[in-house]
Amino acid sequence: METTTGDEVHEADLKLFQGTLFNPPETAFRRCPERAIIAWRIQDAVTNLQITAALTFAVWLIAVLWQKQPLWWLATPLALTFPVGVWNFIRARLRWRMRGYYLGPQELWVRSGIGTRFIETSPYGRIQECTVATSFWGRRFDLATVSVSIGAQGSLVMLHIEPEEAEKVAKLLRDLALKRGVQL
Description:
5 helices; PH-domain like; elongated; 6 strands; 184 residues; 2 domains; disordered N terminus; 3-stranded antiparallel beta sheet; alpha+beta
């Protein structure tokens, strides 16, 4: 596992995010821990195996019904899902690089996306609910997810961060929402 300084990461982010639109000045987006990459890769591999098994069964069923199909037909699902598996392996690292959150002085920022990049923001006063949850793979890798409901706009999700950090962030967001709450 390589270690980089904050300045090196910031420089890489500036190049990766192409300017200041997705990496505004004076913001230091926090990323999830690198072990989230392993969790995403395993989760994607399990999903890919399930799809491969389902496609193999479908191709086998077609071959049995037609009775004259060559045996190499059973390799077609693997040929179809292997590139997806390779892409998912690469995508996990890219997801980690793109995903982050920033607790600004007035609002929460959440950054995500690979091909289409997103920065979602919400003033603290708009926060209605803050939930901390963990998934099956999150528990295995000691990761938690914070979901922030902002009413009609939907929600912001800080995916796979440290559980202790998730609790602190959720408590801080609840406190800020109560202080700066918009009265309806």
